[in-house]
Write a structure and sequence with these properties.
This protein is mainly α and 201 residues long. The mean pLDDT is 85. It has 8 helices and 4 strands. The strands form 2 sheets. The chain has a two-stranded antiparallel sheet with strand order 1-2. It has one domain: Rhomboid-like fold. The longest helix has 26 residues, at 86-111. It has helices spanning 2-16, 18-25, 52-55, 63-84, 86-111, 121-134, 151-168, 176-199; strands spanning 34-38, 42-46, 139-141, 148-150.
């Protein structure tokens, strides 16, 4: 999978110039550029730029963040890519990624918080939704707790849990609404493709 390889490579590039990469390529709120204090360089100016709607998804906070996102990308993305083909898969992935960013920007604008968002989780949640719709009765083995569950129940349960976390502020520092945004935009794209298919018959 091309996306997986590029994301892993981007992480190691990120580690060579962490402050500049986060300043330029993480997703910053739609606001006047602000002075953000970094431990190694002091206060520097940063702010939103259009390319961040995509580039934030190739950055990760640490190796565990990268591992779990890439594991989910491989687990759910590979069957979806095989079913759709590379072109449709990439379109779907980036629509979910940008959609998650748009929702995150709206949430940041409402809350007034100024912090960067990074990670492929929004796109991965979109892929999780696609997998659940395409293979609803396939069995997923959860890690914690280690029990099997059908994909359709896993998707619904995980989505509701993420919504609960977002509404209650649980697990601060995680962009729960961005995750839901990836699912929302992914679902919208699947509906759009489905309606086009019906009209072309």
């Amino acid at each position: 999978m091309i996306v997986l390889g590029i994301t892993v490579a981007a992480y190691f590039v990120q580690m060579t110039a962490l402050t500049d990469v986060i300043r330029l390529f993480a997703l910053w709120p739609l606001a006047t550029p602000e002075m953000i204090r970094f431990a190694d360089t002091g206060a520097i100016e940063t702010g939103f730029a259009p390319w961040q709607l995509v580039t934030y998804g190739f950055l990760h906070g640490d190796l565990m963040h990268l591992f779990f996102n890439m594991f989910a990308l491989y687990m759910f993305g590979l069957p979806v890519e095989r079913a759709w083909g590379a072109r449709r898969f990439l379109i779907y992935y980036f629509v979910c990624l940008v959609g998650a960013a748009i929702i995150q920007l709206l949430v940041a604008a409402i809350s007034g918080d100024v912090y960067p968002t990074i990670g492929a989780s929004g796109a991965v949640f979109g892929l999780l939704l696609a997998y659940g719709l395409m293979f609803p009765n396939s069995t997923i083995m959860l890690l914690i707790p280690p029990i099997p569950m059908k994909a359709k129940y896993f998707v619904v349960g995980y989505g509701l849990l993420t919504l609960f976390f977002g509404m209650t502020g649980t697990m601060a520092g995680v962009a729960h609404f961005a995750h839901l945004g990836g699912m929302l935009f992914g679902f919208g794209l699947i509906l759009y493709w489905g309606s086009r298919g019906k009209r072309s018959r």
